[in-house]
Amino acid sequence: MTIKVLSDTALLVEVTTEPDQDGLRQVQLLISQIQEENWPGVAAVVPSPTAFAVYIRRPESWFSVASRLEELLDADNQTDSEPEPPRERVIPVCYRGEYAPDLERVALAVNLSAEEVIERHTAAAYTVLAVGFAPGFPYLAGLDAQLHCPRLPSPRVRVPKGAVGIGGSQTGIYPLELPGGWNLIGRTAQTLFEPNASEPSWLRVGDKVRFEAVDSIEMPEIYSAPPFPRQSAEMESGCVIEVLDGGAQTTVQDLGRATHLAQGVTEGGAVNRRGLRIANMLVGNDDAAAALEWAMRGPKLRFHDTRLVVITGTLARSVPFARPFVVKAGEVLDLTKLTEPGRGILAISGGLNVPVVLDSRSTHMSGRFGGWRGRALRKGDALPLGPVRATGASRGWWIQPTWVGGAADALTKVRVLKGPEVEIFGSGGWTQFLEGTWEIRSDSNRMGIRLAGEKILPIDPVEMISQPVATGTIQIPPNGQPIALMADRQTLGGYPRIASIIAVDMAIMAQIPLGRHIQFVETTLAEAESLRHTESRQLGLLRAAARSRLEFAG
Predict the structure, then answer these.
(1) CATH 3.40.50.2300 fits 411-523, yes or no
(2) Given CB 3.0 to 4.6 Å as the disulfide criterion, which of 167, 295, 441, 484 pairs with 450?
(3) How far apart are CA 172 and CA 309, in angstroms?
(4) How far is Cα of residue 415 from the mean position of the Cα atoms in its chain?
(5) Distance of alpha carbon 360 from its chain centroid, rounded?
(6) What are the residue ranges spanned by the domains of the chain?
C-alpha cells in the first residue's frame, strides 16, 4: 500500500492494482478501521475499486494525517466490522435506437455484432466496486473481457439520466444528466439516487447486479425538490427577497456537503469558498451561511424587509465591493449591470433559509435538489431569509479585490502540486504543462474549468480504473486538453491526474474570466500547507475585525 498526494487537503491510499472482489474487501476493511478511529480532522473517506482517498478539513495538517494513517496501515490490527451483506439487483435496460448511440461503435471496436455485445453485457454478473463520479453512480466489476473498450477521446458535455455505458474494463449507469466520457450502449428507467430517502443511493458497494434487456422503457420524471411552502412564516412576515431577474445561473450556495462524498454526492457549495466566507463575515453570518452565487451576470432582487448585504467576487455598477451596505424594505438591488462579467457572491444578514438537504442548503444542479427547488433562480421566485443578524456597519474600510479571488496580472499564475499519474507523461509532459499558456474555454462550468493549449499526451496509451479526485485535481483526457475540477466535480474520475491546484489558489481559479490565460507554477506540499494555515489565520483576524465594526440586532 502506498500513500500519495491527491491534493494538499486529500491523501490517496493505493491498496491494490486489480479491481476484483478481494481488493474491494481490503479497501472496505481499511476504511472501516479509519472510520472507527473517528479522527476529527478527517472530513470524508471515499473508496474506489483499487484505492481510497482521505479528505482532511482545511485547518488540519496533511503530514499529521499521513503519519497517523501510516501507523494504522503498518499495525497488524484488524477491525471487527464487516461490510454490509450484498443485495441482488436486476436492472432493465433498453439497448435500442436513441438509447444506444455508441453501441455500433463499441461493436466495431471489439469485433462483435451489436446483438453479441448486448448478449454478453446481459449475461455477466456484476459487483458494485464503488459508488462515485456522481450521486448513486455505480462502478461495476465483471464486464466480459471481450467488451473492454476505450473511453471517448473527448467527454460529452451531457449524458442523459439512466444511460448505461462502458468505460475501459468497467460498466456503469449515469444516475443523473451529467458530462461523461463512457460509451453509451443502453438506458434504464431505474432511479439510482433519491436525496430524501433514508439511503439515497439505490446501490451500495458489494451489491450484485444483472442487466435485463427490454424492448422499451418509460423514463420517470426527473426528481425535483418540493417547493418551499408558499405560506411560510418568513413570507408572512415579509422576510423574503423577490427575484425580478435571475441573472446568469444564480444559485443558493453554502460551503457544501463534504460528508456525503462516499455516496457519490459532489461536495458542491460556492465555487469561490474564500469569497463566500468573507462575504458572510462582513454581514455577521456564520461562515457557512447560505448566500447567492452567480456566473457572468448577477440577479435583480426586491427586498421585502431591511437587510445588511455585501457583494464579493465581482464588481457591479453603483454597488460597493466587499463593503457592507443596507438595502431597505421595498428597494431593488440590481446586480445585472457588472463593470466586468464574472463570478459573484451576495451575502445577506441572516442568510437564505432554504431547506437543508443532505446536510447543506447548496444547490445540486445536476441532481436537482438543494438550494431553491434544486435549480437556478428565475423571475418570480421568492426566497425566504433567516432572522436578521447584523443591522449596520461602520464605514471607512474595505478588502482588496485580489484577496477575495481573481488576479491582478493579465497572465494569471496558479500554484500546483504533482498529481498521482504525472509520471506517465514523462518529464517532457510535465515541463510542457508548466511552461504552456492555457486559455479558459467557454464551455467551463461549476464542474470543471476546461483549458485550451498545446496537447499533453501520455508516453504510452493508458486506460485507468476510476480513482478518487479532489477539488483542484487537473485531469488530462485523451484529447490532451487539461480539465481543472471545481466545486461540482465528480468524486471519482478515470482520466490521469497530472496535478492539483493548491487550496488557497482555488479562489483565483474561481474568478478567472472566460478567454483569459493562466500558467501553472509548481510548489511543494509544505509550502501549500503553510499558505493554507496562513490563510486560516488571516480569515480569523478578518472575522474579528468585521465583528467589531458591525451593529447587531437585539
Answers:
(1) no
(2) 441
(3) 45
(4) 20
(5) 13
(6) 2-74, 88-214, 233-401, 411-523
Hey, which residues does 241 pair with through a beta bridge? Answer: 303, 383
Whats the size of the chain, residue-wise? 554
- CA distance readout (Å), 72 to 16, 27, 264, 543: 17, 14, 26, 37
**Residue 2 backbone zone (phi > 0: left; psi -120 to 50: alpha; other: beta):** beta
Domain 88-214 class in CATH:
mainly beta
The torsion defined by the Cα of 348, 354, 360 and 366, in degrees rounded to 10, comes to -110
Cell of 161: 439520466
Name the DSSP class of 375.
B
User: Residues 92, 95, 100, CA angle at the centre, nearest 5°?
Assistant: 130
Question: What was the pLDDT predicted at 330?
Answer: 95
pLDDT digits (tens, 9 = 90+) for 54-93: 999 988 999 999 999 998 887 765 555 566 678 999 999 9
Q: Which of 85, 87, 71, 84 is nearest to 34 (CA)?
A: 71
Most confident of 147-151, 169-173, 186-190: 186-190
Phi, psi of 391 (to 5 degrees): -110, -15
Contact (Cβ atoms closer than 8 angstroms) between residue 46 and residue 11: no
Decide if 9 contacts 55 (C-beta within 8 A).
Answer: yes
Q: Are 363 and 253 in contact (CB under 8 A)?
A: yes
Q: How is residue 523 written as a grid cell?
A: 510548489
Q: At what angle do helices 103-110 and 114-123 cross, to 10 degrees?
A: 90
Beta carbons within 10 angstroms of residue 328's beta carbon: 9
The CATH number assigned to the domain with range 2-74 reads: 3.30.1360.40
Counting runs of H as helices and runs of E as strands, what totals does the chain give?
A: 10, 33
Burial class for 85, CB neighbours closer than 10 Å (0-12, 13-18, 19+):
exposed
How far, in Å, CA of 301 to CA of 359, rounded? 27
* pLDDT at position 221: 58
Q: Is the pTM of this model over 0.85?
A: yes
Establish how many alpha carbons lie within 13 A of residue 90's alpha carbon, considering only the half-sphere containing its beta carbon.
Answer: 5
CA distance 178 to 136: 12
End-to-end CA distance of the chain: 57
* Range 233-238, long-range pairs (CB < 8 A, 24+ positions): 234/353, 234/384, 234/385, 235/382, 235/384, 237/305, 238/304, 238/305, 238/329
pLDDT of residue 225: 43
Q: Print the SS3 string covering 308-338.
A: EEEEECCCECCCCCCCCEEECCCCEEECCCE
Residues 6+ apart with CB under 8 A from 80: none
Which residues lie below 8 Å from residue 367, measured CB to CB, with a gap of 6+? 134, 135, 176, 193, 195, 223, 265, 374
**Domains 88-214 and 411-523 equal at CATH topology level:** yes
Taking the C-alpha atoms of residue 235 and residue 353, their distance in angstroms, rounded to an integer, is 11
Q: Which residues fall within 8 angstroms of residue 551, CB to CB, at 6 or more apart?
A: 390, 391, 392, 393
